[in-house]
Amino acid sequence: MNTTHEEAKIKSLTRRQFLGRAAGTAAVIAATGFISNAQETQVHVLMELPYASNALEPVITANTISFHYGRHHKAYVDNLNKLIAGTQFAGMSLDKIIIATSGKSENASIFNNAAQVWNHNFYWKSLKPQGGGEPAASLKQKIEKSFGSLDKCKEALSQAATSQFGSGWAWLVSDGDLLKVVKTGNAENPMTGNMKPLLTIDVWEHAYYLDYQNRRADYVRDVIEKLINWEFAASNI
Ligand code: MN
Question: Of 41, 84, 135, 218, whose CB is crowded by the most CB atoms within 10 A?
C-alpha cells in the first residue's frame, strides 16, 4: 500500500477526526444494537488516544501510530470482542478477564487479546508530547529509595526494554514498598504477579520498526528521554 499517501491523509486529519475514525468500530457496534444492556454486556472499545496522532513526532511518527494504534491495537479490541461473545467472560472488565484467563492454556487467545488491549491502553498513557525530564518530588523520592537515583532507574528500564528477547514489554512497577523494573514476554502483564504497573514501554517490533528499523535501543532511549510520562506513573501509585 501507499504508506506515504496514508500518512499524509492521517496527518491532515484533525485530532477529533482521527479519533472519530478510530472509534468507528465502537460506533458501528452501538448503532447495530449489539450493546443491549451496557452494564451486562460489556463491549470493549478502542480507547481514544490522549494526544493527536502526530504529537509524539519525531520519536514516534503518525505513520507508526496509524499502524500501531489504528491497526494492531484496534485488532486486539476487535478480536477480544469476538472471542468473548457468548462466553463467561462477556460481562467482565478487562482486568477481570486478564486475571481469570492468566496461565490457562484453554483461554490463551482471550488472555492474549485482553492483555494486549490493557497493555496498549497503558502504553499510550505512559507517553506524552514533551515527556521525559524529571518526575515530581514524591515519585522521585520513591525512585531514589528503590534504585539509588533517577538515572539508575532509567538505566534499568532501558536495560529491560533492550534485553527482552523477542516481543514484550518493559515496566516500572510498584511491588510492596519498593519500585522495580520488570520485563514481560508477548502479552504478559505484571499484575498477574501481584505487582502494580506504573508505566510501560512496548518493545514489540511493530512499536518501532517503521521509525527505527532494527534499532530498538535508539527507540527506547528516545522514549525514555523525550516521551515518558512520569505524571502518569505517579498517578498509578
Ligand atoms: Mn504494540
Answer: 84
Distance 123 CA to ligand 1 centre (A): 8
231, 172: one domain: yes
d(CA 119, ligand 1 centre) in Å: 8
DSSP 73: I
Whether residue 119 is found in the same domain as residue 145:
no
Let me know whether 20 and 109 are in one domain: no
Task: Tell me which amino acid residue 208 is.
Answer: Y
Q: Would you say the pTM of this structure is higher than 0.85?
A: no
The answer to the question of residue 132 being in a domain is no
Residue 4 pLDDT greater than 50, yes or no = no
Yes or no: say if 94 and 83 are a contact pair by the CB < 8 Å rule.
no
Residue type, 223: V
The range of the structural domain enclosing residue 54 comes to 47-125
The CA 219 to ligand 1 mean position distance, Å, reads 13
Contacts of 163 (CB under 8 A, 6+ apart): 183
